Amino acid sequence: MSQDTSGTHSKDHPGQAAGATAHVIVVGLDGSPTSWDAFCWAVGQAARGNGRLIAVYATPWAAPFPSAGEAFDYDAAEQACRETAGRLAGEAAQRASEMGVPLSFVRESGDVIHALTSVARSADADLVVVGRSAKTLHRLAGSASRRLVSRRDAPVTVVVP
């Protein structure tokens, strides 16, 4: 939970002291280069603001369609997600530790927008940070960063590499 020691809150960002940097930052992390750019930017912000960071790794509810004649192995898919989450958590912890930033790592199932906003609300986050999608299709259909910014649940920073 965010703690404000100044007693003054910014009217634009409840829970954030006027003129202060973010104290609780939620960042989306999926292992892509742009998500690591966002993570590194968020670590720097947290370090400068004496804040803490919550990295969120969202995994989809729906499984990919198996090829014709193949059965989908849900256990193997779940194991792969756990392994990916473990690798991301370890790398994130190392990078945050190097900057002296406290880090929590959360794995959520479902849509990335829902996961980020849910974690941000429950942590009373001052800022949500995501990387800009590098996929061409996302520029046409709408990326997670664009959808997140339009929700207005929390201040959002989109890091562009």
Give structural notes.
By secondary structure, the protein is α/β, with parallel strands linked by helices. The chain has a single domain, classed as Rossmann fold (3-Layer(aba) Sandwich), CATH 3.40.50.620. It has helices at residues 33-48, 74-98, 112-123, 136-141, 144-151; strands at residues 24-28, 52-59, 103-109, 127-131, 156-159. A 5-stranded parallel sheet has the order 3-2-1-4-5, with helices on both faces. α2 links the parallel β2 and β3 (103-109). It is globular and about 55 Å long. The two termini are 30 Å apart.
In short:
The chain is an alpha/beta fold. The chain has helices at 33-48, 74-98, 112-123, 136-141, 144-151, and strands at residues 24-28, 52-59, 103-109, 127-131, 156-159. Helix 1 (33-48) links the parallel strand 1 (24-28) and strand 2.
